[in-house]
Amino acid sequence: MSAPGWLQIGFTLLAIFLLSIPAGRYMARVVMGQRTPFDRFFDPIDNAIYFLIGRNVVSQAMNWKVYTLHMLATNMAMTLIIFAIFLFQDHLPLNPLGFHGMEAFQAFNEAISFITNTNWQSYSGETTLSNFSQMGAITFPMFTSSATGFVVAMAWIRAFTVTDGGADLGNFYRDFIRFITRVLIPVCFIVALVFIEQGSVQTLDASVTAHTLQGADQTIIVGPVASQGAIELFGTNGGGFYNVNAAHPFQNPTPLTNIILMVLMAVLPAGIVVSFGEMIGNRRQAGVLYGIMGALVVLFLLVCVIPEQSGTPILSHAGLESAASSGQPGGNMEGKEVRFGISGSALFADITTAFTTGAVNSAHDSYTPLPGITMLGQMMLQCVFGGKGVGFLNALVFGLIAVFVAGLMVGRTPEFLGKRIEKQEIILVSLTLLIHPLVILSPTAWSMIAPYALSSLGNNGVHGFSEVLYAFASGAADNGSAFAGLNSNTAWFNLALGVVIFIGRYPPIIFLMGVAGSVAQKPTTPPTTSTLRTDTLRFGVFWLATILIVGALTFFPALVLGPIAEFFAMKAGLTF
Hints:
Blueprint: H1 3-31, H2 39-53, H3 55-58, H4 64-87, H5 104-115, H6 125-128, H7 131-158, H8 172-198, E1 207-211, E2 217-221, H9 225-234, H10 255-280, H11 283-310, H12 341-354, H13 369-381, H14 390-410, E3 415-416, E4 419-420, H15 423-447, H16 451-454, H17 461-476, H18 491-520, H19 537-571
Antiparallel strand pairs: 1-2, 3-4
C-alpha cells in the first residue's frame, strides 16, 4: 500500500483516539448529573420534556428490574409506531411519489431492525420510503436506539459504584433524554451542516429532474439525506437514505466526509470506555480495556487492508496462472468507489464492523476472502469496541469470565471493581455469551438446507454460505450491513432476521441488567493481597486471550466453511 494510504489510516485512527477522550469525559459528566458548560442552553429543553412525561416519573429511583422494564416498554411502544408508519405509508403525508405501504413481514423486520440499532435494510430506501417514513420511522429511532444502548451501559456501570444495595441505578427516562438532547442532537446538527456544505442533499422535496446531454429527462431522488446521515454514523446505526449507502455522492460526497463518517461512527463507542474510567474512578482500568479493544481493531484492520491491496491471484498480470501468482495489479478495486480507493474503502469496512455500525461505502460482497474474516469476526466477537454500549458490555462479559477463570487458576478471589463474581453472575454472563452464537449459527444452518432460503442465494458454494452467515451475524450483532449478494426480502429472511435481531438485542440486555442488580447488592470490598487485580497489563493480555480463544472455539468452524475455505479455493484458481 502507498504511503498516503497508510497515512490516511493512521490519521483516522489517531483522530478517533484523540476525540474519544474528551467525548468520553463529557458523556460521563452528562450521565452522572454533573455540571457541564452547556447546561444553560440544554436545561430548559430537558425540563420541558420532563414536564410532558411527568416529573414524578423522571425523579423516580429505579432498581435494575424497574429500569429494564421501562426501557423495554418504551422500546415496544416506539416499535409499534414505526411498524404502523411503514405499513400505512401510503396514507401519510410527504409522499409525493406515491410509495405504497410495506408488506407486513418486511415492515416487521424493519421496525425491529431500526428500534434495536441494527438498521438492516431489505429494501432500497430511495424507491421504497417517503420522506415522512425516512424521518419518522428511520431517523427518529436512530436517535432513540442509540440512546437506549448507551444508557443501559451507564446503568450497568453504576451497579459497581452504588452503595444503596442497588435501589438506585439511575432513572431510565432522565438518562435517555439527557443523552439525546445533550450528546446526539447538538453534534448531529453541526455535522449535518458540514455535510451540506460538502455537497450532501437536505430537502423535503422528493425528486428533481435533470436534463441530460442526450436530451432526455432523468429523475433524481432527493430528501433529508444530510440529517439522517449524521445520526446514522454518530449513533452507530448504519442503514441509509440510499440503497448504496455511503457510496452515494449525495450521502458521502467527498473524501473529507468519508473520513468524518469513519470518525463519527467510532468516537462514541470508544468514548464509552473513557466514560467507564471516569465513572468508576479508575482510568487505569479503562486504559486496559481500551488497549484490548484497540489491539483487536488494528489486528483485524491489517487482515482487511493488506489482502485487498494484494488482490486475487486469478486476476494477476500474467493471466490465469498458478496459485503462486503475485496478485492483482493495483489491488482489488471491484465494488469500490474510485473516490475512496482501497485504503479508504477497507478502513471503512473495518471500522463499520468493529463498531457495529453497518454503514458501507463499498460492496462487502466483492472483497477478497480474508477481509471477510475481519467483517464476520468483528461482528461475531461483538466487542471490538462494538456499537453504542453493546460492544462495551460484551467486552465486560468476557472480562468477568476472565476474572472468574483466572481467580480459580491462581487461587485468588474473583473480584471485579471490588465486587465478588460468583455463581449467579457467571450463569447470567454465560447465558449472554451463548445467545449470540445461537442466533447466528442455528438459522444459518437451517437456511443452508431449506429450499425457500437457498433460492435467495446470489452465489453458489462457500461464498453463498458466507452471504447467509454474514446476514445473521450482522443481525445478531446490531450491525445491519450485508454481503449484498443475498436476496433477503423474502418472507423467510424478513421473519428470521427480525427474530434474530430481537433475540440478539433484548435478552442479553435483560441478563446483563440482572448481573448489574446482583453485583449492586454486594458490598464493595477494598483490594487486598488476595485480590486479583484487573487493571494491569498482565490481566489485559489474559482478557484479550479469553476473547480470542472463546471466540475461536465458538465461530472458527463456521469461518472455515466460509471465507477460509474460499481463500484456499481462490489460491487454487477456483471461482464461484
